[in-house]
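In response to reviewer comment 3 from the previous cycle, which asked for concrete evidence that the modeling workflow produces usable outputs, we include below a single protein chain processed end to end. The sequence was submitted unchanged, and the resulting structure tokens are shown without manual editing.
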Amino acid sequence: MKEFDLAVIGSGVGLSLIEVALNRGLTCVLVEEGKFGGTCLTRGCIPSKILVHPADLIRETAHAARIGLDFQLVGMDWSTIANRMWAKIDESANIEKSLTGVPGLTVLKGTGTFTGPFAMRVTARDGSEMEPFRAKRFILAPGARSAIPPIEGLEQAGYVVSETFFGEKFPDKPWKSLVILGGGAIGCEFAHIFSAFGTQVTVVEMLPRLAVNEEEEVSHMLERQFRASGIDVLTGHRAISARPGKDGGKVVVVRDEVSGATRELACEEILVSTGVRSNADRLAVEKTGVEVGPRGWIHTDAYLQTNVPGIWALGDINGKYQFRHKANYAADVLAGNLFRPAGDPERKQVHYDAVPWAIFTHPQIAHVGMTEAQAREKGGRLLVGYNHYSEVSKGYAMGYEPDDADDGFVKLIADENLRILGVHIIGPNAAILIQPFVYLMNAGFSCTLPPPPEHGHAARRQLTDAVHHCIEAGTISPIYESMVIHPALSEVAAWVISGLRFVDEP
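The workflow returned the following structure tokens.
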């Protein structure tokens, strides 16, 4: 049985660890069952954004009427949009080709299954089995896959998930009608894409609101704007069955979780986006002794190590913040730790206090840190502030006025020492506007101030004076001391600090 110094399962973020090991002269084996490059490149964030951008432009042309411009969409070349998307996905082939013949690296294309703690066999895509191998170290990064809910008749009716949408079920043209099961990030992005392209979209979410991980006011604004865009939103509804419909269409039966009433939704296609499940089961990790949780996610410690020394896991497989940027960060930490012994003071831990994310729907949403409810549960006095797009000159110039239904906002949550706990944005360029807060939060420490002020103008003056004596990282203090370009949209984020007020303790 051939033995390697390091085995990496998954060619997404795991590739960066292969490079580290090869540079040390170690022998490596890479196992990949699908396209090379991981979820983000081949069936996730990158190809979806290639579809999101034209949808954004369509929405912007409609919004332009607010500032006196009348744009008419005279046509849409779906094939051009699709070809640009496939060109990016097809970079997977270049990645695979670049790995061929690399000294010290063996690439195995197939599904890896553990036969023991550090032994694995690989089944090729044609069903044939390759020679088993052993490795001194394993890095598990096989990702996750779409979870399919137990809906009666769904398999017979047929459906699309992200893996097949960016694959054999990509449509030749936008569907006439689409039912999306799931109102999370993926469902909301696809709702925006296809509704902008002229598809009649219905979103079915069994929870009381869309984007349930966001602030309630963010979810409510998103739902209002979806409805204003012609999207039918059914929150608090569960899909209970599906069947083939007329003329090749499909029918989904949904039930109101409060009233119990049912209704039928006819559509051309069904998109399932009800979450993801761990790929750990495909690895048969139980044969390694690696601990997994009740939902199959692999348990890892602050060093990304499993309970079995010599086996690490990162990326989606550990179930923590399933974003490629989190995986990249974790890979950087693991690359520095991989060859350091336990107890080495140079080893770093991963920290997830300031993991940002964005939902590229319309309006765009961005999030970092705690929600207000989470901060209240933690305890202590809180400062909460809002700033709307209409409250800054650039926002007005873009066509936003007070009381507009689509007047987005920035919400900032801080503790009594001005340490940033969370930031939530809904509106244009939210993903860009949130990034400076991420930098501040990752600066890593805060300052201790005198007893907090109460309310009113004098209180604000007292708060400002305190800030001038404590220009520390991790707080809002650098914003107070910085100039912000005027008039620029960055003001809507920076000057949210002017609206900070203490809120009552729960």
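The chain has three domains: 2-42+88-146+277-337, 154-274, 363-503. We consider this sufficient to address the reviewer's concern, and the full set will be provided in the supplementary archive.
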